[in-house]
Amino acid sequence: MPNSYFQFKQFKINQGQCAMKVSTEACLFGAWVQANSAERILDIGAGTGLLSLMLAQRFDAVIDSVEIDEGAAHQASENFKESPWSDRLNIHHKDIQSFAESSSIKYDLIISNPPFFKSSLKSLSSTRNLALHQSEGLSASTLSVVIDKVLSNEGKAFVLYPEYESQLFSLEAKAKNLFAKPALIVKNQPNKGVFRIISEVQRNDFDAIPEQISIRDGKEYTNEFVGLLKDYYLHL
User: Fold this and answer.
1) With contact defined as beta carbons under 8 Å apart, do 164 and 194 qualify?
2) Residue 236 lies in a domain
3) DSSP β-bridge partners for residue 65
4) Full pLDDT tens readout for the chain, 236 residues
5) Which residue in 212, 236, 216, 211 sits closest to 226, CA to CA?
6) 149 falls within a domain
7) Mapped to the 3 state alphabet, what secondary structure does the chain carry?
8) How many domains does the chain have?
């Protein structure tokens, strides 16, 4: 049974009310997200508030976190209040479509670790298969629409998906005149297949050569992983 909390160096994540617990890939995501600067950040599907808190530690930005689940939103709110950055962390308990429609803010950094349905489909050759393949709760299409609505002209969004869902999201983003390309390829082990992909999204086309990282080599964390998480994990 997962612990009811996860202690980081500068903040604590209580997670007893959340279905989605703190995960290694989410921690990697929060530590890796790259931006030259960020004044307004949007976290789509905040869950426990983990990503918002990780980015609050790195960026002196106002962060809006949107979470549709009441229990998770309450949990994130409590985690925000107990953190050193409570004055610039905002939780919004509502669906992201409603939030985007009512928002007049354009964000220069957007992050999302959306829920997904792991498909058994292996290729993108069937248009019908693509049309039928939807994430649970927040579809790739909806996520693309929301990003298009609230992303600033020069802003960036980063989205974490498994490999197939990442490809699907790129197609949905293209249909909204957005460009989504792999920025970080994540493996559990150097000799294993792709575990997750972090995609970067921009309004204008851009060149992208994805980085690659393995979380562990055997039983030990890799040096690259330790380098990213050492400011967060207690025992690194």
Assistant:
1) no
2) no
3) 43, 91
4) 456 889 999 999 999 877 778 999 999 999 999 888 899 999 999 999 999 999 999 999 999 999 999 999 999 999 999 999 999 999 999 999 999 999 999 999 999 998 765 554 444 443 334 333 444 468 899 999 999 999 999 999 999 999 999 999 999 999 999 999 999 999 999 999 999 999 999 999 999 999 999 999 999 999 999 999 999 999 98
5) 236
6) yes
7) CCCCEEEECCCEEECCCCCCCCCHHHHHHHHHCCCCCCCEEEEECCCCCHHHHHHHHHCCCEEEEECCCHHHHHHHHHHHHCCCCHHHEEEECCCHHHHHHHCCCCEEEEEECCCCCCCCCCCCCCHHHHHHCCCCCCCHHHHHHHHHHHEEEEEEEEEEECHHHHHHHHHHHHHCCCEEEEEEEEECCCCCCEEEEEEEEECCCCCCCCEEEECEECCEECHHHHHHHCCCECCC
8) 1
The rounded distance, in Å, linking the Cα atoms of 2 and 25 is 16
Query: Where residue 205 sits, what CATH number does that domain have?
Result: 3.40.50.150
Asked if the structure places residue 74 within a domain, the reply is: yes
The helix-helix angle for 50-58 and 70-81 (nearest 10°) equals 30
The structure tokens 């905002």 sit at 90
Burial class (CB in 10 A: 0-12, 13-18, 19+), 36: exposed
The pTM assigned to this predicted structure is 0.90
Q: Is residue 235 part of a domain?
A: no
Q: Is the dihedral of CA 59, 107, 151, 47 positive or negative?
A: positive
Quote the domain boundaries for residue 25.
5-229
